[in-house]
Amino acid sequence: MASPREVGVAARTSLAVLALLVGQAAADPEPDDSVIIGADPGWRIEDVQVRGSFFAQHGQGFQSQAGGDSPGSELMYMFQPSTLITVRQNANIVHQVMVPVDAITAASPDAVDAISTASRRNIAFDVDVRSKYKLNEHDTLTSRVMAHGEEPMGGGVIGIGWQRGLADDNASVSVNGSLGIDGFDDHDHFGDFLGKTARETLNANVSASQLLSPTTVVDGSYGVTYQHGTLRTGWNAVPTTDGLLTDEVLPRGRVRQALSARLAQFVPATRTALKAWYRLYHDGFGIDAHTIEASAYQYVASWIYVRGSYRFHHQDGADFFTTAIAKPFDDMTTLRTADSDLAPFDAHEWSVSATTVRGRGPWKLWSFSAELMRYTRSNDLRITVGSLSFGRLL
Amino acid sequence: MKARVLWLLVAIALLSACRIVPRNRRQHLADPTMQPDEDVLRDRAHAKIHTAREGASGGDGEPAGGGCGCSN
Question: What angle do CA A240, A246, A247 make, to 5 degrees?
Fold first, then answer.
């Protein structure tokens, strides 16, 4: 048993330690995030990706005047370098800056294109900035600012959206909208300049996603777009029954709706990912379309996978699509187009690619990808695309 | 058609109440191949063809095209 002297010493020592701890706690406030995870380094580039794609397009369509009263050549080559830079502003704000450039040569290389050169040789570019602002654990604001430029045309898009995670992020819902304005030169089918013109585009989307299992996720979306203004392509021509050509005439308004759903399934036993996607489309031109796409991803090592994809697209033509309009017709009010993009057709698309995964394998910070793609349309259009890309985490 | 879309949205909203997968069992869902935007630049290159050469593009959050094949 301790003596009274020993008890007194122990009590005084305990009080001193207690006072020291209390004093220390009072002197040191609660540590903030910067103490625990380090100070926010501020603006920094996190990731850079670069891709180069070469497009070779062959085929014929009535909108090209290179064929006279028969479908004209749609021969086109395009080189598209593009860059995607991810910039983190702070812990809650991330920006993605995408700059694709299209160097186009020899699209529809005849007739009025010699006047406007709009689709003969052209450089087109976008600067597309998409940002995410994490408001709290559940809510994220998104924004988009995009500018587009090419020889006879300039335009831009601004958009804003909101996303909310639900049920511990087992699900999410989001809404977004955008406004786009394009200004461009107007021409008739002779190539005569008719002045400046414009079109406006309003778009709204709602989407949702849901985890169905530890390996399955499904998402769906609905979008509606309203366009107003000059929707026609000025130099497009429409053949008449007497072997002449006349101007394309389109409505000045168009409502487009699309409903889509996607299912993604991972198979751990084989390290395979399978994705299926369906899209239903309807618009005010009378075009209905169905699109399906199936993709398979297979790891051949922990750091590289191959991807195979097939896409099928079927669309009805616009109500006023024709390849031979009969006279008499009112030049300004009779809707007509011979644009092969507005015709009824089926399109098949195949692509294969190989991609390395960053953070794995021999090139920890680097990724590489190569892709070959083939797109064919039932109304005489064939496009082959070869792409190489690489990226680096910074 | 509108009623079906409405019911689909209601079903999706109800599904969102399900807490099915805890965070510590989402490693496969986090795999790069499972991300909806696992290759943004590739998707953009593909969309370039679809928006330029298919009249039935747009309506889904991206600029609508279907014209001359030169970016509009």
Answer: 140
Amino acid A383: pLDDT = 94
> Could you please report the per-residue DSSP string of A200-269?
EEEEEEEEEEEEEETTEEEEEEEEEEEEEE--S-TT-EEEBTTS-EEE-B--SEEEEEEEEEEEEEEETT
Return the higher-pLDDT residue of B7 and A6. Answer: B7
Measured distance CA(A389)–CA(A55) in Å, rounded: 15
- The answer to whether A323 touches A62, Cβ cutoff 8 Å, is yes
Which residues does A112 contact at the CB level (< 8 Å), separation at least 6?
A65, A187, A189, A190, A191, A235
Number of domains in chain A: 1
The backbone torsions φ and ψ at residue A288, rounded to the nearest 5 degrees and listed phi first, read -110, 140
pLDDT band at A115 (very low <50, low <70, confident <90, very high): very low
From chain A residues 324-383, the ones with a CB under 8 A of any chain B CB are: 339, 341-343, 347, 349, 351, 353, 355, 357, 369, 371, 373, 375, 377, 381, 383
The pair of structure tokens assigned to A82 is 């593009």
Q: How confident is the model at residue A109 (pLDDT cuts 50, 70, 90)?
A: very low
Chain A nearest C-alpha distance from B37 (Å): 12
CATH of the domain at A211: 2.40.160.40
Distance (Å, rounded) from C-alpha A73 to C-alpha A42? 53
A211 and chain B: CB distance < 8 Å anywhere?
A: yes
User: Could you tell me the pTM of the whole model?
Assistant: 0.84
Q: Report residue A232: phi and psi, to 5°.
A: -80, 160
Q: Strand, coil or helix: what is B46? A: helix
Count how many Cα atoms sit within 13 Å of the Cα of residue A310 in the half-sphere of its side chain.
Answer: 2
pLDDT tens readout for residues A224-239: 999 999 888 777 888 8
Out of B5, B26, B44, the one facing A82 most closely (by C-beta) is: B44
Task: Label residues A47-75 b or e (16+ Cβ within 10 Å = b).
Answer: bbbebebebebebbbbbbbbbebebbbbb
Tens digit of pLDDT for each residue in A118-159? 445 678 889 999 999 999 999 999 999 999 888 777 889 999
ipTM: 0.83
Domain hosting residue A273, numbered range: 4-393
- B13-46 residue pLDDT tens: 665 556 689 999 999 999 999 999 889 999 989 9
Please report, for chain A, how many H helices and E strands are present, in that order: 3, 19
